[in-house]
Amino acid sequence: MENLKNKTIGSFVAEDFRTAAVFSKYRIDFCCKGNRTVTEVCEKQNIDADALLENVLQVVQSENSGSIDFNSWPLDLLADYIEKTHHRYVEEKTNILLPFLDKLCKVHGANHPELFKINELFIGCAGELSQHMKKEELILFPFVKRMVKTKESDGILSQPSFGTVSNPIAMMMHEHDNEGERFREIAALTDNYTPPADACTTYRVTFAMLKEFEADLHKHIHLENNILFPKAVTLEKDFVEVE
């Protein structure tokens, strides 16, 4: 048990995504801050590390009922999955949530002024994520796929304009941190997505969608921060000669 306390949160989730539910229950960020060890997190958040690990191990040792092992996927396949699943999800849901939040501000803003801040935060999120995903789709992901193909053909990897893959990855991880912090603020303003007593159907649906959006964003960031990005850095190091 003691050696597991020095293992990072992100590595647990990378090996078995079902453990994400345990960390979420303890309000532990497994995506943006997944590089922290169990000991670091538990000391900072005053959590019993032994109790946390017992819960994690119960999940890991239970029968796996079809959980996807993203950690074993080829990097080009994982990049495609992230783009076609999580990027498209963000695009679809922001187009729905933006008008819903605008409507809530107009109808309920007088009684619930926090809605204006929630709307402002989500507008910022939608804009930043749109630009973020474009950079991944046009710059980072194509380079990751090129590395995979070059490795398979025993070719020589030409140096990209950004120098090394660590440079765009550092930028993407910084932007992930920003969105993680933005959604922590949204969660606090919504009382963890709990609609007030006078909430109409649109109000309740919007809060439910925001909660789902945050959960998808956590998985999205986890797949990149804890699996795709570190493996891309490792893969680049396999190329001895870079021109």
Automatic annotation (TrEMBL):
<dbReference type="InterPro" id="IPR012312">
    <property type="entry name" value="Hemerythrin-like"/>
</dbReference>
<keyword id="KW-0963">Cytoplasm</keyword>
<feature type="domain" description="Hemerythrin-like">
    <location>
        <begin position="84"/>
        <end position="232"/>
    </location>
</feature>
<dbReference type="Pfam" id="PF01814">
    <property type="entry name" value="Hemerythrin"/>
</dbReference>
<keyword id="KW-0479">Metal-binding</keyword>
<dbReference type="Pfam" id="PF04405">
    <property type="entry name" value="ScdA_N"/>
</dbReference>
<protein>
    <submittedName>
        <fullName>Iron-sulfur cluster repair di-iron protein</fullName>
    </submittedName>
</protein>
<keyword id="KW-0408">Iron</keyword>
<dbReference type="InterPro" id="IPR019903">
    <property type="entry name" value="RIC_family"/>
</dbReference>
